[in-house]
Design a protein that fits this description.
Strand order of the largest sheet: 3-7-9-10
Strand content: 5-15%
Order of helices and strands: HEEHHEEEEEHHEHHEEHH
Radius of gyration: 39 Å
Shape: elongated
Number of domains: 1
CATH class: Mainly Alpha
CATH superfamily: Outer membrane efflux proteins (OEP)
CATH architecture: Up-down Bundle
Helix content: 55-70%
Number of helices: 9
Distance between the termini: 68 Å
CATH topology: Outer membrane efflux proteins (OEP)
Largest sheet: 4 strands, antiparallel
Number of strands: 10
């Protein structure tokens, strides 16, 4: 009878071993109506993400303002038409001008056109320069948005892979716990195991069931988070395909100096600084003369469309501002603009230093976590082998329940640690790519 029981226990063990083969292999999730790869997610986000759409509209607005700023250096045209109304009284005939001035005789209609162009106006060029810097600033802001969305999207993509994997692993652990409980129950029925160990085994099974339920709830939350980044308004139960097995980080040490200078945050701060420098030029323009030319042509007549007595005039002008903003206004406005430019230059330097530190930290975390994943991958294999051996010995009565439970728990913890480290490595990879300045277009 004891031999039969041992054979039954061994049968339960081998069935459980077949169902508990954990591996971080490629995942293809097909529970939803849309199964997306990483590249599919990138294409959808580029098209539908609201943050990117808003950043693109800001670029269009800045570009329109830049084009409008060129109007200041182009010729301006204006026209004037002035007319008079005839008023007749009982005693005399008189004519009242449209401006309310009375006079005798016919006061004609006047048509006049004037063209004006600035030959030298420093403010105009600085306005264009600042508008151009603002376009660059909006482009850099878009790149920052693209990099941020890519980072969040990648984290959400791997979070969903991780959530599905955790559901699978939690279910496999539950199956293993149930099989182990069946084994302990059989030994207890035969008087070979204590009631306390049986109760503990059942409690471990309940914990495994709770882990399955919790991970299913996490799965739904992960789907909603990915939906938001894809720009989907409703809950679509989006599914993804990919792998938690990431390629090893590049060997060697990256060229941090070059990467820092090309980082979108640095580029954005540089554009802000250039805009502030253009603001200095705008303040300086209040001290410089403006040179312009004007051409005027006019005609007179008794009708609204006057064609008689054509005349023209051409003249140049030099406008020299003298305390145009008061005796102190111009000077201190210029000082304020210079200090703002200096402030932005220091902020640019600070952004460079912070970006370098962020990149170094991201590289450090990525390399460390990749090495940990290698270690835990091997440890899972070791704990799986140890669990198999311990189960055989326990079923044969050669090992106590407490010692056997240590081996089972070690396997469960190693599997969960490996998957958590793989997800953490994916987050560090996304952080490193963010520090590199990689956007959705890259």
């Amino acid at each position: 009878m004891r031999l039969l029981n041992k054979l039954v226990l061994l049968g339960l063990f081998f069935v459980g071993s077949a169902g508990a083969a954990f591996a971080a292999s490629d995942l293809s999730i097909s529970s939803g109506s849309h199964t997306l790869s990483w590249q599919d997610c990138v294409k959808i986000a580029l098209k539908d993400n609201p943050d990117l759409a808003a950043a693109k509209k800001a670029i269009d607005s800045a570009r329109a303002s830049y084009y409008a700023s060129w109007n200041e250096v182009l010729p301006s045209l204006s026209s004037l038409e002035d007319g008079y109304t005839k008023v007749r009284s009982a005693n005399q005939s008189s004519f009242l001008a449209s401006n309310g001035v009375a006079g005798g005789g016919f006061l004609p209609w006047t048509i006049q056109g004037t063209a004006h162009m600035d030959i030298f106006n420093f403010k105009d060029s600085q306005d264009i320069r600042k508008a151009h810097a603002f376009v660059s600033q909006m482009w850099s802001s878009y790149r920052v948005s693209s990099v941020t969305v890519r980072y969040n999207l990648k984290v959400a993509f791997y979070r969903l892979l991780f959530a599905y994997k955790m559901v699978d692993v939690a279910q496999e652990i539950l199956n293993l716990r149930k099989q182990n409980t069946d084994m302990v129950q059989l030994l207890y029925n035969n008087g070979q195991e204590s009631k306390g160990n049986l109760m503990l085994s059942k409690a471990q099974t309940k914990l495994a069931q709770e882990a399955v339920d919790q991970n299913k709830r996490r799965l739904r939350l992960s789907q909603i988070q990915l939906d938001q980044l894809l720009g989907k308004d409703g809950f679509t139960q989006v599914s993804v395909q990919g792998s938690l097995d990431l390629p090893a980080p590049p060997k060697g040490y990256p060229n941090m100096a070059s990467l820092v200078e090309n980082n979108p945050n640095v580029q954005l701060q540089k554009a802000i600084w250039l805009g502030a420098k253009a603001g200095v030029g705008q303040s300086l323009s209040a001290m410089l003369p403006n040179v312009g030319v004007s051409y005027t042509r006019s005609t007179l007549g008794n009708t609204m469309i006057a064609t008689q007595s054509p005349s023209w005039s051409f003249f140049g002008s030099v406008d020299v501002p003298i305390f145009s903003n008061g005796p102190l206004g111009t000077f201190f406005t210029l000082v304020s603009a210079k200090r703002t430019a200096d402030q932005n230059e220091e902020q640019l330097r600070s952004t460079r230093l912070l970006t370098r530190e962020t990149m170094e930290n991201a590289w450090y975390n990525l390399k460390n976590e990749a090495q940990l994943v290698d270690v835990w991958t091997y440890r899972v294999k070791a704990t799986k082998q140890r669990n198999d051996e311990s189960t055989i010995r326990y079923s044969a009565g050669l090992m106590t329940y407490d010692t056997w439970e240590i081996a089972v728990t070690d396997l469960v913890n190693a599997e969960q640690t490996l998957i958590n480290d793989q997800y953490l490595e994916a987050q560090y990879l996304a952080a490193w790519e963010e520090s590199e300045g990689l956007g959705l277009e890259d």
